[in-house]
Structure formats: structure tokens, C-alpha cells
Design a protein that fits this description.
The protein is an alpha/beta fold. 33% of the residues lie in helices and 15% in strands. The protein has one domain: Alpha/Beta hydrolase fold, catalytic domain (Rossmann fold). It is built from eleven helices and eight strands. A six-stranded mixed β-sheet has the order 1-2-4-3-5-6, sandwiched between helices. The longest helix has 16 residues.
């Protein structure tokens, strides 16, 4: 009898392995290509891991986590651990997926990474993005651990460094990270994106951000903002005697320091529109791509809540187009 070529035994071996594994509910699809997948993880999954798609070509890690909540990105003595944590929303088979990082607003005093995320999570799933929503220390005068300058910026920079180092564990691509934020979150995003000091403190640089979207803030130029806004920033940032200029992103833009492409909105009072438009114009003058969303029909709150909302035609289409262009580079 002619000898059997070793490859001829492979189907039989696959069947034997499947039979042995059947008792432990393992499934085999007979493809024999070594690829393993998991079911789509629920967004309510907390601190669990599962094996995700691995092509064996080095493009993805063989052990991917599912969506996780309250993941610590740093520890600060005397501070509630939740304030320096993040939530990761990924999907089954994620492999080198773009990563969108979200920074909530709340006047530096309130807000939470879980607020208003349902539509954003759905939008990310539809477009194949890994979504990360993060918390940062809040300013609550009189409370232990109340944040002051530069705590808010430093926390977001630390979280970005964590995302860069761990994105691959969730099927994300650390070279494709977009940083978005609303209101106070927009002010933080703008500062972290244009002032290298914050990311450099954590071994990173603005060039590690593929693109950024600070969405709706007068904080771009605090020298021109309203008295009410000034009082908010003085409470949160006033331990820096030069906070008015040193945390105004428009005044910090310089060419050649790795500032990423940006998208912003223009809305509100004529004075606010002027501040927001001037920031975008300053970026363009420095040779940095800047995209404007005309959000004059929206309230400050709606700039946030419309993102990913069914039927939205103001925020979602231009933001998706901007991110798609960003991730194609």
C-alpha cells in the first residue's frame, strides 16, 4: 500500500480534535486555518477576557479583551479610583481597528464617562471603531482630591498613553487614535493636542494623536470669553496665575510640533462663534488641517447628544467623514 502523505492525515486529526473538545462545548468549523473567534461582546460586559480573531501574521494579538468598564489607567493617592478609569467598547473580531477616545464635559466639576454613550457606542460599532470613554479628576472645592491645574489635562494625557499602550489588547490600532471631547472636555482635548508638555510627561507626543475634535468651548481663548466662563475656569485652573493664556489653545498653536488635524463646531453667541472660528483659522494659518461644523442651529447640549443619534444631519455626517478621512491617512 502506498504511504499516506502527512497532509492527508490533517482532516482526520481535525475530526479527532473536534470530537475530543465536544465534551467541553468547544466548536469546530472544519476550516482548519487556526483562526478562532468569539461572539459579539455585550456593552455591559465588565472585566472579562476572551480569545478574538488572530490571523497569525502579527497584525493582531492572539488574546483580545471584550468590552470592559472601570479600567484603571492610573492611580492617584487620595482620589476615587473611578475618576482615573475608562470604559472600552470593542467588538468581536476587532483587528487593527481605529480607536476613538471620548472626553466628557461638565464644567470641570461634574460629568461621567458613562453619560450619553449609547448612540456613540452604536455609531462606533457601525463604523468598526473601538470606542474609549474616560473619566478625569473633577474640581470640587473643599473635597479631598479636588482637581486643580494641571490635573485635568494630565489625567487625559495619562489615559491617552494608556490607550496607546493597550489598544492592541482590544483589537485597536495605536497608530489610529482620535481624541474627541465636548465642553470642558473640548477645552481639555484642545490643550492636550496643542501643548506637548502634557503628553510628553507620559512618554507620548501630539503626533501620537491621528486627529482631534474639541467640540464647543470658549476656552480656546480665555482672554475673550464671557465672565461666567471665566469664573468656572478660575475655580478649576486658577492655581496657575497665568491660566488665562497658558490654557488657551488658540494662543499655543505653533507649526511643526505635531499638532494633529482638528474638527470643531461654530455656534452660540456671536462672541462665542468668533472664538471658535478663530481657533480653526489659527490652525490653518499654521498649516494644520481644520474642519468646521456649522452647529448654529443646535444648543450646547445638542452638540453632544446629536452625535450618532438616529436622524441627525448636523453633527454625525461631518464628524464621520472627518474621522474616516483621518483614519485613511
Amino acid at each position: 500500500m502506498r504511504g499516506v502523505h502527512p497532509r492527508g492525515r490533517r482532516p482526520l486529526l481535525v475530526l479527532l480534535v473536534c470530537a475530543l473538545l465536544a465534551a467541553s462545548t468547544a466548536a469546530c468549523d472544519g476550516s482548519g486555518d487556526g483562526e478562532r473567534t468569539t461572539a459579539v461582546p455585550s456593552t455591559n460586559t465588565t472585566n472579562t477576557t476572551s480569545t478574538a480573531t488572530s490571523t497569525g501574521d502579527g497584525g493582531c494579538r492572539s488574546r483580545n479583551r471584550t468590552s470592559e468598564r472601570d479600567v484603571a489607567y492610573r492611580e492617584v493617592a487620595g482620589v476615587d479610583a473611578n475618576l482615573t478609569s475608562l470604559d472600552v467598547y470593542t467588538f468581536a473580531g476587532a483587528c487593527n481597528a481605529p480607536v476613538v477616545v471620548w472626553v466628557h464635559g461638565g464644567g470641570y466639576r461634574t460629568g461621567d464617562k458613562a453619560n450619553g454613550m449609547r448612540d456613540k457606542v452604536r455609531l462606533a460599532r457601525e463604523h468598526g471603531w473601538v470606542l474609549v470613554s474616560l473619566d478625569y479628576r473633577l474640581t470640587r472645592p473643599g473635597e479631598p482630591g479636588s482637581a486643580r491645574f494641571p490635573d485635568h489635562f494630565d489625567d487625559v494625557a495619562a489615559a491617552l498613553a494608556w490607550v496607546h499602550d493597550h489598544a492592541g489588547e482590544y483589537g485597536g490600532d495605536p497608530s489610529q487614535i482620535a481624541l474627541l471631547g465636548h465642553s470642558a472636555g473640548a477645552d481639555i482635548v484642545a490643550n492636550v493636542a496643542v501643548n506637548p508638555r502634557y503628553l510628553e510627561a507620559h512618554g507620548r507626543a501630539p503626533a501620537d494623536i491621528a486627529c482631534a475634535g474639541p467640540l464647543d468651548t470658549e476656552g480656546f481663548d480665555k482672554t475673550r470669553s464671557s465672565p461666567a466662563q471665566q469664573r468656572m475656569w478660575e475655580t478649576a485652573l486658577g492655581d496657575n496665575p497665568r491660566y488665562v493664556t497658558e490654557t488657551s489653545a488658540t494662543l499655543l498653536v505653533e507649526p511643526g510640533i505635531g499638532i494633529p488635524p482638528m474638527i470643531g463646531v461654530v455656534r452660540g453667541t456671536p462672541e462665542r462663534q468668533q472664538i471658535e472660528r478663530r481657533f480653526l483659522e489659527t490652525l490653518r494659518d499654521a498649516g494644520i488641517e481644520a474642519t468646521e461644523i456649522d452647529a448654529r442651529a443646535l444648543s450646547h447640549r445638542e452638540v453632544n447628544t446629536r452625535i450618532g443619534a438616529p436622524g441627525d444631519d448636523v453633527m454625525t455626517p461631518p464628524l464621520v467623514a472627518f474621522l474616516d478621512s483621518c483614519f485613511e491617512r
